[in-house]
């Protein structure tokens, strides 16, 4: 196959990208995105500050621009993200305790109702663990509402849209030896044992010199899959975009039956949140980088 999406589909997987609503008027951008990818994540538009700027007043205008572009171009959509310490609107940043807990629940219900039956996977909770060696939860206003905030979010999400796969999503959880990975593993194992509704784990996979790719990523993916959840690579970008590393990540997903697919976090280097690291598959002029060819070959079994 000659595109990433079609090549991934040969094994029942998808290949996606983050899409920014503000770039949908850029024809170089949209022609690459329409051609190559069959899954879309809104880069910012489905986040809390965008979708509920005032408490109880939902605004899906930017989110729907991304959603509608995706569907009109035959793509599936991953929802990102419902409960997160970051990109909270001001009113939510100022809440705590039971009022914040209720606001989180109401937010999940409100957004999931709007997209009920339309979203393949939802990142229900994003980035709840601390970096470093502690293996602790990240401190945040949500965490301070009680350690059970994550499972409450997942139970709320399951009731709101039973058709969506419900994911926990984080970064620096790709290396099996990291404390953060082990902490996330313990949470997912506990959720499966106690019947908390979780279907998938998203590995953001923002690799750079500080958090480099390690070949034990495949072990990590398989160990989580063995807990009874699907896994996905949700925000892939790699500093310098080495073709060999991109190929290895792709092969890691292909090697794990429950790896649903791969999403890269943007189209061209100039679209990246860290464009100075040139971490993506397309040059600024829209041409394909060596990493693109490496990923395509890997998806085609080469
Ligand atoms: O929209 C405003 C614009 O009006 C304003 O003029 C401009 C000035 O700074 O800011 C614009 O908002 C920016 C927004 O991106 C849209 O471009 C924010 O400042 C900026 O903080 C925001 O960055 C996003 C970041 O999440 C925020 O946390 C990145 O685009 C986005 O790629 C990044 O994505 C995250 C994932 O959601 C979670 N995992 C990590 C990943 C990378 O940080």
From TrEMBL:
Coiled-coil regions listed in the entry: none
EC class: hydrolase
Record keywords, A-Z: Carbohydrate metabolism, Glycosidase, Hydrolase, Polysaccharide degradation, Signal, Xylan degradation
Top-rank taxon, per record: Bacteria
Active site (catalytic residues): 235 (nucleophile)
EC number: 3.2.1.8
GO BP terms, alphabetized: xylan catabolic process
Ranges of residues in domain GH10: 1-298
Catalytic activity: Endohydrolysis of (1->4)-beta-D-xylosidic linkages in xylans
A GO term for molecular function: endo-1,4-beta-xylanase activity
Key word Protein biosynthesis present: no
Family: Belongs to the glycosyl hydrolase 10 (cellulase F) family.
Official protein name in the record: Beta-xylanase
């Amino acid at each position: 196959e000659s595109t990433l999406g079609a090549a991934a589909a040969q094994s029942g997987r998808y290949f996606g990208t983050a899409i920014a609503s503000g770039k949908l008027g850029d024809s170089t951008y949209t022609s690459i995105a329409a051609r190559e990818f069959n899954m879309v994540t809104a880069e910012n538009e489905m986040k809390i500050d965008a979708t509920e700027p005032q408490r109880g007043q939902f605004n899906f205008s930017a989110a729907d621009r991304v959603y509608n572009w995706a569907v009109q171009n035959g793509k599936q959509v991953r929802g990102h993200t419902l409960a997160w310490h970051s990109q909270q609107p001001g009113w939510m940043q100022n809440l705590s305790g039971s009022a914040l807990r209720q606001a989180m629940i109401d937010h999940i219900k409100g957004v999931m109702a709007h997209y009920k039956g339309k979203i393949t996977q939802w990142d229900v909770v994003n980035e709840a663990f601390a970096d470093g060696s502690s293996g602790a939860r990240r401190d945040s206003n949500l965490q301070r509402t009680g350690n059970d905030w994550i499972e409450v979010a997942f139970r709320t999400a399951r009731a709101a849209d039973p058709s969506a796969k419900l994911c926990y999503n984080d970064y620096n959880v790709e290396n099996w030896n990291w404390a953060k990975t082990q902490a996330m593993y313990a949470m997912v194992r506990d959720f499966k044992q106690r019947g908390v509704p979780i279907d998938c784990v998203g590995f953001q996979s923002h690799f750079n010199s500080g958090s480099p790719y390690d070949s034990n990523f495949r072990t990590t993916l398989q160990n989580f899959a063995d807990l009874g959840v699907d896994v996905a690579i949700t925000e892939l970008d790699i500093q310098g975009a080495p073709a060999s590393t991109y190929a290895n990540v792709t092969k890691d997903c292909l090697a794990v039956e429950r790896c649903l697919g791969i999403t890269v976090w943007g189209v061209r280097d100039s679209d990246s949140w860290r464009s100075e690291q040139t971490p993506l598959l397309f040059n600024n002029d829209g041409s394909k980088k060596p990493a693109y060819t490496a990923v395509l070959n890997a998806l085609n079994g080469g």
